[in-house]
Specification:
Largest sheet: 3 strands, antiparallel
Strand content: 15-25%
CATH class of the largest domain: Alpha Beta
Number of strands: 5
Bound molecules: flavin-adenine dinucleotide
Strand order of the largest sheet: 3-4-5
Distance between the termini: 49 Å
Oligomer: single chain
CATH architecture of the largest domain: 3-Layer(bba) Sandwich
Order of helices and strands: HEHEEEEH
CATH topology of the largest domain: FAD/NAD(P)-binding domain
Length: about 160
């Protein structure tokens, strides 16, 4: 698990319920996560935090998937090879909206602006739903519900 925030800690703690061992790669010498989440990670004997560390290379192949990773200590420059069977990243969220190329209004973080509670964007007839316009929740059930909202909005738009 790569990251030092709440999401990374939560996912590391979850993975530790499924795996024998979890490495958490943290680029600084402290976790950004809340105290409660820090405690969950640091008190879990299955999770080993690699401080001051970044990923140098992920190793794997089409047949086996991920088989390892080279982790670099940014203070010493030393590279350590980990034998791992999975690699998860939780270092922030960037909405995939670049393809819109300025045609639809976005907020400063790049999320599509919708006219809540409707899914209308600033362009009549263009509606948005899901994570791409949700900086707060980003959950599958919320995205699905917003998809339903957008479908109703589209139908009403066409009927008009
Ligand atoms: C590690 C992880 C764990 C999660 N766990 C949970 C959980 O337990 N419960 C929960 O409710 N949610 C969870 N989520 C969140 C959930 O996955 C998202 O909220 C949900 O997938 C959002 O759905 P979406 O349709 O808005 O976006 P996405 O599922 O991201 O779908 C967007 C689709 O658009 C495609 N696309 C992108 N750009 C273009 C383009 N230019 N042209 C055409 N297609 C394009 C993408 O390939 C993708 O298929 C988790 C997310 C992650 C990353």
């Amino acid at each position: 698990m790569v990251g030092g925030g709440d999401t990374a800690c939560e996912e590391a703690a979850y993975l530790a319920t499924l795996c024998r061992k979890v490495y958490q790669i943290v680029r600084r010498d402290e976790l950004r996560a809340s105290k409660a989440m820090q405690h969950r990670v640091l008190s879990n004997p299955k999770i080993e935090v690699l401080w001051n560390s970044v990923t140098d290379e992920i190793i794997g192949n089409d047949m086996d998937g991920v088989t390892g990773a080279d982790i670099k200590n940014v203070k010493t420059g030393k590279i350590q090879r980990l034998d791992i069977a999975g690699f998860f990243v939780a270092i922030g969220h960037q909405p995939n909206t670049a393809f819109l190329d300025g045609q639809i209004e976005l907020d400063e973080a790049g999320y599509i602006k919708v006219q809540n509670p409707s899914s209308a964007t600033n362009i009549p007839g263009v509606f948005a739903a899901g994570d791409v316009c949700d900086p707060n929740y980003r959950q599958a059930c919320v995205a699905a519900a917003k998809g339903c909202v957008a479908a109703i909005d589209v139908e009403r738009f066409l009927n008009k």
